[in-house]
Write a structure and sequence with these properties.
Number of strands: 11
Distance between the termini: 37 Å
Order of helices and strands: HEHEEHEEEEHHEEEEH
CATH architecture of the largest domain: 2-Layer Sandwich
Helix content: 10-25%
Strand content: 15-25%
CATH topology of the largest domain: BirA Bifunctional Protein, domain 2
Radius of gyration: 19 Å
Number of helices: 6
Length: 290
């Protein structure tokens, strides 16, 4: 197995956390850093253990999409967490991670826009994606792995043709930094937000996310695996039912509606069975924005 080129010393010198990233697993090549994190959990890895890799051969994004990563050019990081909050609070974890990463990139000189639910954009193109997965821990309770992929050093030629018009990197946007700096600053920003969430500060964290999100007043698209979609702008949100409950599971709910009112990103299950229980007309609309 090839050794990782990730500079542990540079990472540690910049890391200012108490827990997150204090155990670091660095690999040269893996199928997925999330998978390595789950394996580490089975072997007793502590809360806050982090996994990084130079190359992922099967890195995954939301809805089973593949995350492309050029060898040594991007950051692939997965973080193992043992939540100390209620299970329902876990739905907001991808938003918390996105907010932390946006703040980290800002510290490094790049002003990223948050795209609900799990993307970061620079100049309108994707620079990062986040994937959170939840499972039962061998010791009992829940465990969560938060995976973050960040394009750091890539040039346009490093992206496949189908991604080149949609993707960018920190280097392409004029931000000179390293994978190690991005990883450390991400964890530095995430730890206080995650602590605040665990201590009951959910609304405070979500308001900070809302303040940075770039979706307000724009048309958004929601789509089910079956194909139907809902389009809504801030002005037309009043025509859709309002919800304030976030839902979390290893796989996305089969159907839910969402709004882009600045009052909050809101969602609920609107599967036919759920709607029947509420006495609402049955329809098959919406699942996650594209």
């Amino acid at each position: 197995m090839a050794e990782s080129t990730f500079d542990r010393a540079a990472f540690s010198a910049r890391l200012g956390t108490r827990r997150l990233g204090r155990r670091l697993i660095a690999r040269g090549e893996v199928s997925s850093t999330n998978d390595v994190a789950w394996e580490a959990l089975a072997e007793g890895a502590p809360d806050g253990a982090a996994v990084v890799a130079d190359v992922q051969t099967a890195g995954r994004g939301r809805d089973g999409r593949r995350w492309h990563q050029s060898a040594g050019q991007g950051l692939a990081l997965s973080l193992l967490l043992h939540p100390g909050c209620e299970r329902r609070q876990l739905a907001t974890l991808p938003l918390i991670a996105g907010l932390a990463l946006a703040r980290a990139l800002e510290r490094l000189g790049a002003s990223a826009e948050l795209k609900w639910p799990n993307d970061l954009l620079l100049s309108g193109r994707k620079v990062s994606g986040i994937l959170a997965e939840s499972r039962g821990a061998p010791q009992g309770g829940d465990a969560v792995v938060v995976g973050a992929g960040v394009n750091v050093l890539q040039s346009p030629e490093d992206f496949p043709p189908e991604l080149a018009p949609l993707a960018t990197s920190l280097a392409m946007e004029g931000c000179a930094t390293t994978r190690e700096a991005v990883a450390a600053e991400f964890l530095n920003e995430l730890e206080p937000l995650w602590t605040l969430m665990q201590e009951g500060g959910r609304e405070q964290v979500l308001e900070a996310w809302r303040a940075r999100a770039g979706i307000w007043g724009r048309e958004v698209r929601a789509q089910t695996p079956a194909g139907p979609c809902v389009r809504s702008t801030r002005q037309s949100c009043a025509r859709l039912p309002r919800f304030r409950r976030y839902r979390f599971s290893p796989a996305p709910p089969s159907a839910f509606s969402f709004l882009t009112s600045r009052r909050g990103v809101s969602s609920r299950s609107c599967s036919p069975s759920a709607r029947k229980r509420r006495g609402a007309p049955s329809h098959n609309r919406a699942n996650k924005p594209a």
